[in-house]
Design goal:
- The complex is a heterodimer.
- Chain A is α/β, with parallel strands linked by helices.
- Chain A is built from 10 helices and 12 strands.
- In chain A, strands 3-2-4-5-1-6-7 form a 7-stranded mixed β-sheet, sandwiched between helices.
- In chain A, a hairpin with a 2-residue loop joins strand 11 and strand 12.
- Chain B has 10 helices and 13 strands.
- In chain B, the strands form 2 sheets. Chain B has a 7-stranded parallel β-sheet, sandwiched between helices. In chain B, strands 8, 9, 10, 11, 12 and 13 form a 6-stranded mixed β-sheet that branches.
- The relative contact order of chain B is 0.14.
- Classes of the chains: A alpha/beta, B alpha/beta.
Chain lengths: 319, 284
């Protein structure tokens, strides 16, 4: 039985829109208290001011695992993996129900596409986990567009009056497919700075390495991007169909890469989200590592095949 | 001890503990390679062994270009041996026995006052099917340790046009030196001569199966308990290769480890981000 009392012991993924600390505390305090009283693993990963508000209301947070929000939500795909391991570990250790209140950083421009994918993926990847996940969003600071996206990715809404169905919720796979055009970097509409047809992974890696060196990218970041390109081109050859086309662009603050092949691409819309997702032998691990190291990966099916798009943030003066 | 790890155009400039995989095309190319290789040994006063397929007369004829050949044969400094007799049929090949045979030859060589035993061996007919290649590559992993620790250097030659297509890559992967005459990726897993092993060059999909095979061979041996891998000459490793290392470590029985040394920063970053294993120890 879930903590909200409206279903089987499976995932409840709820948005919690709030405008003030008091509104947040009113909604969350009863949920935490019930979790602690029931002896359930109860986790809280929100801003310090919200933690303080809850501690004052509840007279302390004994029994609640308070996680530093900055560390927990540093990078979407690392967070997805961390929670996946943590939640499955708790279930393996006998937890019958788990509560998590965690707020993703709605002002994180660099990772916003990743956070949207994270919120979408939770609905499908954690489906069978007995978790009540409440995701607060501060309506006074998040932009209306981001609020709208967040609301479309939570099947239910949690308030101080309890849980209710969310009429704006959209099926996550459909949502993500529709959103791809938003995620594509406008640079891709311009002539690429580098273009290679049918490069081997090794050639692609070396050519991109030379190009990144000319952009004066720091060596460690350049090595990581070279590995990413190697993995994307390897996937195109092993799982896609030639011709394979590698293109690259740069602008102040970012480099953009696209690897296209004429194959169908992975069936799994969450390929690369967790290890082995979309795996045909070792595929899926390469994409997953790219997401872990760099984020910024968008997989898109298009009219003539499949493209892996990668946006890498750099220092503003570079590229 | 520093072993040469490289791809060479000619099999010369080598020394005891070196171990060459020498792909060639056509018998004449092999004769030329063997003559150059053994000629260098003759100049250094080493004991020479030429192993190839044929009668004694044919083998001696192969070395017609070797300066002082007849004197070397007469003095016993050069011996020739039929490969079929030495190795037997591929399906009956016993790598452990063959390793012991070469170890004994190297000891006898030293006892006879030679500085080293230099062996040029044509192994083409041991490599006619993928199964034969896998069996022989496993033997090469085992013998590489012995070569790295003994007064011995060997050149393992094969006709790339006759041997199975997998031979060039599989053999180059487990030899510190290979021929530039047959193009293969330069990734290698070879003995460091200090009880440890070295992963060098580029590891990717092209040599992933060879990496997995070599790891299987090394870890099937009960001693030493830990497999120490020096990565200082590793140029690149893709995700699948690193995952292969982790998978090998996870299969180890408790108490055994794979220990990585001089691990490049990106490899450490990938392992940290994605692939932990209790039995995998990673050092910078």
């Amino acid at each position: 039985m879930s903590g909200t009392g409206h279903g089987q012991a499976v995932l409840d993924h709820e948005a919690l829109p709030y405008r003030s600390i008091q509104e947040f505390v009113d909604a969350v305090a009863p949920l935490l208290r019930a979790g602690v009283d029931a002896g359930e693993p109860t986790m809280l990963a929100v801003e310090e001011r919200l933690v303080r508000g809850l501690a004052e209301r509840l007279g302390g947070l004994d029994g609640v695992t308070v996680l530093p929000a900055g560390d927990e939500y540093a990078s979407p795909f690392i967070t997805l993996r961390t929670y996946d391991r943590r939640l499955r570990g708790l279930v393996a250790d006998g937890a019958e129900h788990i509560r998590v209140v965690g707020e993703v950083p709605h002002g994180d421009d660099a990772h916003w596409h990743g956070w949207v994918r994270y919120e979408a993926a939770i609905n499908d990847l954690y489906t069978e986990l007995p978790v009540h996940a409440v995701c607060p969003i501060d309506l006074s600071t998040a932009t209306p567009a981001r609020v709208e996206e967040v609301l479309q990715l939570h099947p239910r809404v949690w308030t101080s009056e309890g849980s209710r169905p969310n009429q704006r919720y959209r099926e996550p796979r459909e949502f993500l497919a529709d959103r791809i055009q938003v995620e594509l970097d406008p640079l891709e509409a311009t002539p690429p700075a580098l273009e290679r047809r049918d490069p081997t992974p090794r050639e692609a890696r070396r050519d991109i390495g030379d190009w990144l060196e000319s952009l004066r990218l720091p060596a460690q970041l350049a090595d990581t991007v070279e590995l990413a390109v190697h993995e994307l081109v390897t996937n195109a050859w092993w799982h896609g169909r030639p011709p394979v086309r590698l293109r690259a662009w740069s602008a102040p603050g970012r480099v953009v890469l696209a690897v296209h092949d004429t194959g169908p691409g992975p069936d799994d819309p969450y390929a690369g989200y967790l290890p082995g997702r979309g795996a045909i032998d070792t595929a899926g691990h390469g994409l997953w590592i790219v997401n872990q190291l760099l984020g910024g990966l968008t997989l898109a099916h298009d009219a003539d095949g499949f493209t892996a798009h990668l946006v890498v943030e750099t220092a503003p003066h570079l590229a | 001890m520093t072993r040469l790890v490289d791809a060479l155009t000619h099999p010369v400039g080598v020394a005891p503990h070196d171990h060459l995989s020498w792909g060639y095309t056509g018998r004449e190319a092999w004769r030329e390679a063997a003559t150059g290789f053994l000629g260098e040994g003759a100049r250094r006063g080493e004991h020479l062994l030429y192993v190839a397929y044929g009668t004694e007369t044919e083998l001696v004829d192969d070395l017609a270009g070797l300066p002082g050949r007849d004197d070397l044969l007469a003095s016993g400094a050069l011996r020739v041996q039929d490969a079929s007799g030495l190795y037997g049929p591929p399906e009956q090949f016993d790598g452990v026995l063959q390793t012991a045979t070469y170890a004994a030859m190297a000891r006898e060589t030293q006892e006879a006052g030679y500085p080293a035993l230099r062996v040029a061996a044509d192994i083409t007919r041991q490599l006619l099917t993928p199964e034969d290649v896998a069996l022989f590559a496993a033997y090469e992993v085992l013998i590489d340790t012995m070569v790295s620790e003994s007064p011995l250097l060997t050149m393992c030659g094969f006709d790339a046009g006759t041997a199975d297509a997998s031979a060039a890559l599989a053999l180059a992967f487990v030899h510190p030196i290979s021929s530039t005459g047959v193009e293969v990726p330069d990734g290698r897993l070879t003995s460091g001569g200090d009880g440890g092993w070295r992963l060098s060059g580029e590891l990717d999909r092209r040599n992933l199966a060879d990496l997995c095979h070599a790891l299987d061979v090394l870890l099937a041996v009960p001693e030493p308990r830990d497999l120490h891998l020096d990565l200082r000459r590793l140029v690149f490793a893709d995700v699948a290769s690193l995952r292969a290392l982790v998978t090998a470590a996870r299969r180890l029985e408790p108490g055994r480890r794979i220990v990585l040394h001089s691990t490049p920063p990106l490899v450490r970053q990938v392992l940290r981000a994605g692939f932990g294993a209790e039995n995998l120890e990673v050092h910078a």
